[in-house]
Design goal:
This protein has 160 residues and is of the alpha+beta class. It is built from 3 helices and 4 strands. The longest helix has 21 residues, at 115-135.
Length: 160
C-alpha cells in the first residue's frame, strides 16, 4: 500500500483517477491539480461569482486534500480576494462547509463525496457569504450554539 492515499506519480490510485475524471467532467479546465514535491495535493481554480455589486467577481479556490483522505474531506480556502467571515470560517481561512453532526447523508460521505462536492459547497458558501454581508442573515439552516429557551411554563425553582 502506498504511503499516500493517491499513490505515487508513477502509480496513481483509482480514487485519484476518479477525482480527476469527475473534476474535469464538472469544471473542465477551471481547476488544475497540483502535486507538490512536499505538502498535500490540491486543486486550484478561479470561479466567477455572478453578483453585480461585487468589485471583484473572480474568486480563486484552493481545495486541499488531507493526508487521511477520503476519511476526512478536502479543505476549501478562498485565496483571492481576501474573504473572512466570523461565521462559517475557521481562523486559518478554511471554509466551514457542513456540520459533521449531519452525518454521511447531508455532510461528507467518504464513499460518495469527492472534490467536486467540496468545490460545489465552496461556491455555495461564497454566495451565502455575500448574502450575509448584504442582509445580516446567513441563508439556510444554522446550528444553534446555545440552547433555545424552553417552551411552555417554566419549571418550579427557576427563580425568574
Amino acid at each position: 500500500m502506498p504511503k499516500d492515499w493517491w499513490g505515487t506519480r508513477q502509480n496513481v490510485s483509482p480514487r485519484l483517477r476518479l477525482e480527476v475524471e469527475l473534476m474535469r467532467a464538472t469544471y473542465a479546465d477551471t481547476f488544475k491539480l497540483h502535486v507538490p514535491r512536499t505538502g498535500n495535493l490540491h486543486w486550484l481554480g478561479t470561479v466567477e461569482i455572478n453578483l453585480r455589486a461585487l468589485k471583484q467577481r473572480n474568486h480563486t479556490l484552493k481545495i486541499l486534500y488531507p493526508e487521511d483522505y477520503p476519511n476526512k474531506p478536502p479543505e476549501a480556502y478562498i485565496t483571492d480576494p481576501y474573504v473572512y467571515s466570523e461565521k462559517h470560517q475557521f481562523e486559518d481561512g478554511q471554509l466551514c462547509l457542513f456540520n459533521p453532526r449531519d452525518g454521511v447523508t447531508y455532510g461528507w460521505n467518504p464513499s460518495k463525496s469527492t472534490a467536486v462536492t467540496v468545490v460545489s459547497w465552496a461556491i455555495q458558501w461564497i454566495y451565502a457569504f455575500y448574502t450575509w454581508k448584504a442582509t445580516g442573515k446567513w441563508p439556510g439552516h444554522e446550528e444553534q450554539l446555545t440552547a433555545p429557551p424552553p417552551k411552555g411554563p417554566r419549571p418550579r425553582g427557576w427563580g425568574f
